[in-house]
Amino acid sequence: MNIISILQIDHLSKTLQKNPILKNITFDIKKAEIVTIVGPSGGGKTTLLRCLNRLIEADQGSIIFDQKPITDYTPPALRKNMVLVPQESVMFPGSVYDNISFALQIHDMHDEHQIKKSLTDTGLSENFLTKKASQLSGGEKKRVSLARALALFPKMLLLDEPTTGIDPKNLHTVEQRIISFSKQRNLTVLWVTHDVEQAKRVSNRIANLKQGTVTSITTPDQFQWEEAY
Amino acid sequence: MGIPYTPIEGLYILLAVSSLLVLVIILSFYKKLGIGKEFTFAILKGGGQLVLIALFLTFLFQTDLWIFLIWILLLTMILVGGHTSAKRATHMPHAFQITTPSILAGATTALMVLALSQAMPLQPQYIIPLAGMAFGNSMSICSLSLDRLVREIKLNRTGIESMLSLGISSKQAIEEYNRLSIRAALIPTIDRLKTLGLIFIPGAMAGLLIAGTDPLVAAEYQIIVYLMIVGGGIITAMTVAMLARKKIFTEYEQLAEWLYKE
């Protein structure tokens, strides 16, 4: 594993509607590492991801991404390189193909091969490209969301519960796909999950986020169940 | 030939027609509709406002100061229109900063075309009613487009954030909603255009016919009025879409906090 940090979070705090959601978060992530964030609902996991790709502004602290403070990037440039795949997979109008190619066209990166590869990397076959995106199942939509992100060749992926809605039969396949494209593409992944067993299966390190604070960050074999909740 | 009676005779006629007001009050009371009081208030308020503007217009048509006074009137129309329309954008801070310039842009462009083409002679009796129609309709179109745009954005916050998350700019992320809001604002006017003369004779043409104008000229003028409304309207709606983006997104291309208020 490359030991260079791609993301350094330093004393990050965020308050929403007078409630402190994140308190002095400090940790870093190495390049091509998969770090999962576990912890109880309302602990600040989603808020942390939203601060990282600047969908909301942090109140305090600094975030360094790929050697530069995130404020040095234009928001679209930052988000293209550190793509957030939100928990709710909203499909854009049109087919699966339209969904994947939409951002590519805007970024002037249109590539037929890449569109197909991104989709198959998530475990969906090329036959899905012509299907109407709005008619897919919840799990299929999740994978199209992942494919939209992968097609952009980001340096880092922020995944918010990426396997919610995926049936147990395909759950392990999707997990393995994410691990494998992270390795193939040297892609760093920050993965929010409520499932501690999943965190142990997929990550290099697990961060436990409780009441807005990272209480521990350990390797999966050192992680204690009782730490999570 | 115009309306064949003097203002005093008109007052008697008005009193006679007010029997319809009495009818509304009686029916409302009898059927417990609860609109009698409100209707009486509305007709007195609206009627009073019309009489006041009529007195003002009588003065304006006779004075040489009309060229100054008309600017005050137009300014009032813009400001009142801007503030009325701004109320449609619930929670949007300083929405009048969008509505006022949008109404101004649409209505003045349309009025300029009318002035340059001589459809509107530069006399107060032409400028005031046409400006009233231009500003009034631009205000309605502005309200409709802003209301629709804000509703669409609030309904589709997650979808818009999904686009932003992929590095898509705020401008591109709301393009579809801009189109929807512009179309939605213009559809009622376009539908009215389609049914012109079939279901109803519109205001300007009806007024001209009552005033004794040749029906063909009255029809031509009505078409001019509708062109003014649609032409000004599309500029208004597009300006709303353009200016609203600054209120909908922060400078860092994030959805603004007011969009999360219910």
Short recap of the structure:
The complex is a heterodimer of chains A (229) and B (262). With 229 residues, chain A is of the alpha/beta class. Chain A contains 8 helices and 10 strands.
Number of strands of chain B: 0
Total helical elements of chain A: 8
Contiguous runs where pLDDT drops below 50 for at least 5 residues of chain A: none
Q: Could you say what the CATH topology of chain A is called?
A: Rossmann fold
Molecular shape of chain A = globular
Distance between the termini of chain A: 30 Å
Helix count, DSSP H or I runs of 4 or more residues of chain B: 11
- Main beta sheet of chain A: strand number and arrangement? 6 strands, mixed
Whole-number total of structural domains of chain B: 2
Distance between the termini of chain B: 57 Å
- Helicity level of chain B: over 70%
What's the topology here?
The complex is a heterodimer of chains A (229) and B (262).
Chain A: E1 5-16, E2 19-30, E3 34-38, H1 45-52, E4 60-65, E5 68-69, H2 75-81, E6 82-85, H3 96-106, H4 112-121, H5 138-150, E7 156-160, H6 168-185, E8 188-192, H7 196-202, E9 205-210, E10 213-218, H8 225-228
Parallel strand pairs in A: 3-8, 3-9, 6-7, 7-8
Antiparallel strand pairs in A: 1-2, 1-4, 4-5, 9-10
Helix pairs in contact in A: 3-5, 4-5
Chain B: H1 7-17, H2 19-30, H3 36-62, H4 66-86, H5 96-116, H6 124-155, H7 157-165, H8 170-173, H9 175-194, H10 203-210, H11 215-248
Helix pairs in contact in B: 2-3, 4-5, 4-6, 5-6, 5-11, 6-9, 6-11, 9-11, 10-11
Give an overview in words.
The complex is a heterodimer of chains A (229) and B (262). In chain A, the strands form two sheets. A six-stranded mixed beta sheet of chain A has the order 6-7-8-3-9-10, sandwiched between helices. Chain A has 229 residues and is α/β, with parallel strands linked by helices. Helix content of chain A is 34%, strand content 28%. Chain B is mainly alpha-helical and 262 residues long. In chain B, 76% of the residues lie in helices and 0% in strands. Chain B contains eleven helices and no strands. Chain B has helices spanning 7-17, 19-30, 36-62, 66-86, 96-116, 124-155, 157-165, 170-173, 175-194, 203-210, 215-248. In chain B, helix 4 packs parallel to helix 6 (124-155). Chain B is globular and about 70 Å long. Chains A and B meet through helix 2, strand 6, helix 3 and helix 5 of A and helix 7 of B.
